[in-house]
Design goal:
GO cellular component, one term: cytoplasm
InterPro entries: FAX/IsoI-like, Glutathione-S-Trfase_C_sf, Glutathione_S-Trfase, Metaxin_GST, Mito_Protein_Transport_Metaxin, Thioredoxin-like_fold, Thioredoxin-like_sf
Keywords: Membrane, Transmembrane, Transmembrane helix
Bound molecules: glutathione
CATH topology of the largest domain: Glutathione S-transferase Yfyf (Class Pi), Chain A, domain 2
Strand order of the largest sheet: 2-1-3-4
Strand content: 5-15%
Distance between the termini: 73 Å
Family: Belongs to the FAX family.
Number of domains: 2
Pfam families: GST_C_6, GST_N_4
CATH architecture of the largest domain: Up-down Bundle
Number of helices: 10
Length: 283
């Protein structure tokens, strides 16, 4: 009799366990194969997918700032879609154009230049273009990581995360992700003092190069200014009380550059920010 009871219990737990497992597997497979509903967007308009507007600049993402500034500079018709959906490569921003999805700001800009027959650098020499690209890449591939560490990891109060409303338990995982990524990159193995030294050297060389120019290469902006502005905008407006801002403030010409780029391409800046999360951005 007792043996029968135990047998029944084993059978019941096997059935329940199997059902739960099957449900979980079905949900996971469904999630993977299910295609998100395709939305209809206007023809010949770039749909720029980005996260919500930022507190003191239109985005907290360097690359969103870069791409949206480029779209404005190139006068390409675009509309914003704010949300948390990342590109197929797991990053943002990304775009849709007449149904085609593209990710990575460099590939996107190349595609748009070709599609709209645009060359924002046509009046510059090959040597100037080369220098502009080198500075862009220094900022995007090196300075960016110092700023990432300053903003998301060195600040023990996580002021940036808290200001934009990230829940505490998510902050833990995000900080861990920054730690792992920067360690893999290499910069995360340095001490904070060394990282700030790297940041300062980059900013100093950019400041020396720009000198009295209004923009990166002279009195008129070039395509690479969009990326340079994207990176500097985060140090200038989104340092969240941390240290990297104090390094930028040492260089008057870089601060004036930020203000100049804002004036030139973002006349609607005030409508595109949340003023420290105190209001909804209207644009
Ligand atoms: N090379 C990429 C970089 C984009 C990028 O790193 N985006 C960040 C936001 S600033 C991102 O998606 N981070 C989320 C993640 O890596 O999971 C581009 O130019 O688009």
């Amino acid at each position: 009799m007792e043996i029968l009871k135990v047998d029944n219990l084993i059978l019941i737990s096997k059935v329940v366990g199997g059902t739960v497992l099957a449900t979980v597997v079905t949900c996971l497979v469904w999630k993977r194969i299910r295609k998100p509903e395709k939305k209809e967007y206007p023809c010949d308009t770039v749909v720029l997918h980005q996260i919500s507007r930022g507190p003191f600049a239109p985005s907290i993402s360097q690359y969103v700032m870069k791409l949206e500034t480029y779209l404005r500079f190139a006068k390409i018709p675009y509309m914003n879609v704010h949300g948390s959906q990342k590109s197929k490569k797991g990053k943002y921003p990304w775009i849709e154009y007449n149904g085609q999805e593209l990710s990575d700001t460099e590939f996107i800009i190349e595609f748009l230049n070709e599609t709209f027959k645009i060359d924002l650098d046509e009046k510059f020499t090959a040597k100037e273009r080369g220098a502009a690209r080198a500075f862009q890449k220094m900022l995007e591939e090196n300075t960016f990581w110092a700023v990432t560490l300053d903003r998301w990891l060195y600040d023990s109060k996580s002021s940036g995360f808290r200001l934009i409303g990230v829940p505490s338990w998510i902050i833990f995982f995000l900080r861990r992700n920054v730690k792992n990524t920067t360690y893999a990159h290499g910069i995360g193995r340095h001490s904070p003092e060394e990282v700030y030294h790297i940041l300062d050297r980059d900013l100093q060389s950019l400041s020396d190069f720009i000198g009295t120019n209004k923009f990166l290469l002279g009195d008129e902006p070039c395509q690479e200014d969009c990326a340079v502005f994207g990176q500097l905008s985060q140090i200038y407006w989104h340092s969240f009380g941390n240290k990297c801002n104090t390094y930028l403030k040492k260089y008057d010409n870089l601060c004036n550059y930020c203000e100049r780029m804002k004036e030139r391409f973002w006349p609607d800046w005030e409508q595109c920010i949340t003023k420290g999360m105190t209001q909804k951005a209207t644009k």
